Structure formats: structure tokens, C-alpha cells
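Quick one:
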Amino acid sequence: MAKDMTLLWGTGSPPCWRVMIALEEKSLQGYNQKLLSFEKMEHKSQEVLDINPRGQLPTFKHGDNVINESYAACFYLESQFKSQGTKLIPDGPAEQALMYQRMFEGLTFYEKLNAVIYYEWYVPEGERHESALKRNKEALVTELKLWESYLQKLGSGSYLAGPSFTLADVVVFPTVGALFRFGLSPERYPKLGEYYNLLKERPSVKASWPPHWLENPKRLDTLKDI
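Output:
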């Protein structure tokens, strides 16, 4: 089955990482994959545009089915391979409701992270303002405190929707991984630090860990004062 799948991806991209974790959890190793370079603008190449007219990564294809949005690809994999690998959508209504809630809040979390770490990438030099970056940092702090409180309520050793690893963890952990890669303090955010340490040892996460992070494990300091 995995032989019918193709993933075009970029290292360190949380949306790509989401799909890779889902593939691992559903025991779909052995899919066709190609690592592309954002720096060389390979995500805008004809190879990508032929499957994904937005020119974005991930670009994912299963047979003739194209699912490029990372959340959609994760839902698709769970739906099509329900009885294979890890069950990623819990049956209980309370856990399922929390899973969906955290999944979609995860989009805001990712957006607020990007507004800080990629500020200079997104905003042309002449349009940058310290006050705007300061606002973005304050919004990220508010968001981080919210996720700290969510994990606090669930207690030590919990996943985002309760005792089971779910799609919420598949899609939100890559954002948490990026936070700590960019220098977030685990002392300042201990619950997020605990969650990060719990998941980074999970086989699906280790198998899909961004290769350039492995080559250069030194953390950046972009978020050290957040």
C-alpha cells in the first residue's frame, strides 16, 4: 500500500512532519519520498506544481488521490487505514471532542509561532517594525501560557487529548518541536517541556525527526527570551 504513496517534503517543516508522523503511526513505512530544499525554492518547481498548484510542501499523493493539506492528509490516512497501526481517533466522545478542539487550536498555535520565528522571512525589510514584532511575541507568550494550562489540567504523562496518543498529537507536536528547536525555555514552560520530552522518544517521531536537526542538534536562540 505504501508503495502507491508519494510524499514531497522539506526538512524542519511542521506541516510535512505531521504527515510523516501519521504515516509512521499507521505502519505505512516504505512510501516514495523526496526531500526538497526551501532555500533553493524547489517547492516552486514544476514537479511540485504539477501536483500542488499552490507550490507548497507537503505534497502528498496516494494512487490518483492528491491530499496536500497536512491536516487533510492525516485525517485521510486514519480514515483509509483505520485498522492498521495506531488508532488515532478515540471512540469516547469526551476524548474525541478534546482531540478535535486541540487539533484545530493547533493551527492558531502554529500561526503565532511563525509570526515570530519567520517575521523577517515574511515581512520585507522596509516594512518591518519593532513594535509589530513585539506584538507578535506577546501574542505567542499568551498562546504558550494557554497550552501550559491545558497540559497542567491533564496532569503529568498525558497526551493532548488524554491518556491516548491521537491525531491532536500528530499535528501539534511538530509545532512544539519547532518551539524548542528555536530556543524556547523548558524551565519557563515546564509542561510543554515535559510533553516535548515524552513525545520526542516516540518511535514515529524519532523516525521522522528533521534530518538537518540531527546533523546540527544545537538549538537556536530565537525564542530564548520568550
